[in-house]
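Figure 6 in text form: structure in, sequence out.
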């Protein structure tokens, strides 16, 4: 039995080290919680519970970790426990990264740094900034990420924590590689190796995985296979239990083996990665395994199978972006205490709710705003807009031209909608599909106005951009009063069926009203309808 002072020190050891062997660390944290309860110290209880949550997340039980987090987070906020709250947001950031939610991961990582104060340990000062850099890189903001990695690196020198620098550099190299900056990633990896040699540090599985990925990017597939096999062997020997480590290592091994032309070995590695992703509900990596399967089929010359695998990948990607979002645990939005920090947070929030290509609102924003509008506005109308024969533009011209068309269509929709419905907005739902939202505009009136928008798209001078290929849109319109149910899925489903009718009826047209017997299909029921 530990007294309060010794229990505090024991918990600090759990909190301020990178623990990979999740199962025994979880058991230790559970024992510490029992002792804290006997002492009647609620803060120690909360800290022990957070350590358990972190280990559950690392062991792959991400959903359970997220569910348990709420109570600890609420206690920390209610009792103004700044250091504990900062640690909570760091774990929240990791959970959302596992779930593939870059925006939520970034918000929590920013909050974890903002909450640092004089009570924060040296480990927290370094690692929270390094993990903020990770989240920024995961969200695609590499310049701010580099600034945070540099800041964390300087702190390891100032605070004399060279071993922690090993992992800061590893994360930095990995982030540059993930962003496609292979030369810069190799430079950071060289610094990492030099640090290891200088201090006699043995490279563990995490670092070897980074090196293997960089070797693959440089086309050194034989070296990459050996590195990844060593990585997996080392990882297995230490019985580490990161939620996403082994699936990612196996996926990288499969990629290296595909590069070598060792297709059977690659398939075996990929199958095991996919199994682990499914078992641990790792949506982000599961999508990547589907994509790799398509690449592997194509490398074998199995083009029909590659096409089918690509369809599975595309479907999984869409589910990741929409359905899984509703299943993710959400916490309250991060708020910063200084004006500058609040402005930075708002910039990040706005960035997370905008489509990077078109600048329109994205599906996240739509999912936040549309349910409220449906509940409060009986005259709300929505219109699903889909480009006709868009695949032809990509195939005959290029994807770059396709992107230019999407950007121009987005501008036309936004400009025209502002005249028709000043309170409305346009969102990109994905691919060549958009949604126009018209508050206070019943479908009986909206149909005529939306048809004018359709004509504006067709009338635009596309000749120079598309080399004579026409650009038109089909639109399905639905009002709240016409929806199958007064919910977001019900309203969008009705508009979707009207979009199918517009496609089936010849394209370049608007269909509104309640779907009749000849419009029982959804647009998504027929892939050929595009």
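Output sequence:
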């Amino acid at each position: 039995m530990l007294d309060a002072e010794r229990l505090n020190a024991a918990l600090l050891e759990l909190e301020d080290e990178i623990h990979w062997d999740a199962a025994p660390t979880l058991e230790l944290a559970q024992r510490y919680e029992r002792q804290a309860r006997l002492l009647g110290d609620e803060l120690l209880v909360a800290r022990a519970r957070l350590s358990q949550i972190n280990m559950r997340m690392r062991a792959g039980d991400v959903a359970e970790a997220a569910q348990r987090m709420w109570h600890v987070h609420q206690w920390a906020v209610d009792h103004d426990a700044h250091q504990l709250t900062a640690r909570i947001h760091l774990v929240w950031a990791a959970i959302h990264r596992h779930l593939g939610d870059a925006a939520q991961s970034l918000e929590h990582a920013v909050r974890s740094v903002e909450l640092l104060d004089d009570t924060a340990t040296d480990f927290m000062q370094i690692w929270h900034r390094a993990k903020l850099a990770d989240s920024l890189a995961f969200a695609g903001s590499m310049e701010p990420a580099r600034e945070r990695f540099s800041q964390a690196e300087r702190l390891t020198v100032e605070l004399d924590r060279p071993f922690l620098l090993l992992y800061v550099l590893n994360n930095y190299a990995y982030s540059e590689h993930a962003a496609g900056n292979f030369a810069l990633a190799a430079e950071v990896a060289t610094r990492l190796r030099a640090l290891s040699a200088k201090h006699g540090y043995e490279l563990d599985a995490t670092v070897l995985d980074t090196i293997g990925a960089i070797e693959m990017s440089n086309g050194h597939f034989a070296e990459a296979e050996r590195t990844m096999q060593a990585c997996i062997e080392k990882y297995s020997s230490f019985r580490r239990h990161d939620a996403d480590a082994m699936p990612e290592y196996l996926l990288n091994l499969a990629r290296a083996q595909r590069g070598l032309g060792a297709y059977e070995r690659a398939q075996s590695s990929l199958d095991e990665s996919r199994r682990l992703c499914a078992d641990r509900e790792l949506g982000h990596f599961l999508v990547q395994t589907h994509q790799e399967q398509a690449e592997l089929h194509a490398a074998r010359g199995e083009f029909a199978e590659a096409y089918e695998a690509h369809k599975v990948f595309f479907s999984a990607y869409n589910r990741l972006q929409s359905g899984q979002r509703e299943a993710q645990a959400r916490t309250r939005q991060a708020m910063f205490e200084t004006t500058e920090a609040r402005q930075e947070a708002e910039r990040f929030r706005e960035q997370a709710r905008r489509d990077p290509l078109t600048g329109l609102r994205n599906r996240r924003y739509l999912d936040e705003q549309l349910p409220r509008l449906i509940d409060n506005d009986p005259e709300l109308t929505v219109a699903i807009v889909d480009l006709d024969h868009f695949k032809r533009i990509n195939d005959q011209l290029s994807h770059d031209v396709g992107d230019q068309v999407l950007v121009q269509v987005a501008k036309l929709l936004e400009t025209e909608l502002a005249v028709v419905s000043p309170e409305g907005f346009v969102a990109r739902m994905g691919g060549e599909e958009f949604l126009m939202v018209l508050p206070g505009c019943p479908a009986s009136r909206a149909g005529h106005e939306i048809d004018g928008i359709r004509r504006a798209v067709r009338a635009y001078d596309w000749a120079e951009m598309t080399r004579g290929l026409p650009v038109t849109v089909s639109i399905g319109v639905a009002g709240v009063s016409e929806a199958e149910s007064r919910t977001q899925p019900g309203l969008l489903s009705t508009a979707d069926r009207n979009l199918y009718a517009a496609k089936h009826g010849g394209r370049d047209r608007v269909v509104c009203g309640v779907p009749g017997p000849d419009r029982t299909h959804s647009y998504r029921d027929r892939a050929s309808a595009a």
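Caption detail: Residues 399-420 form the longest helix (22 residues).
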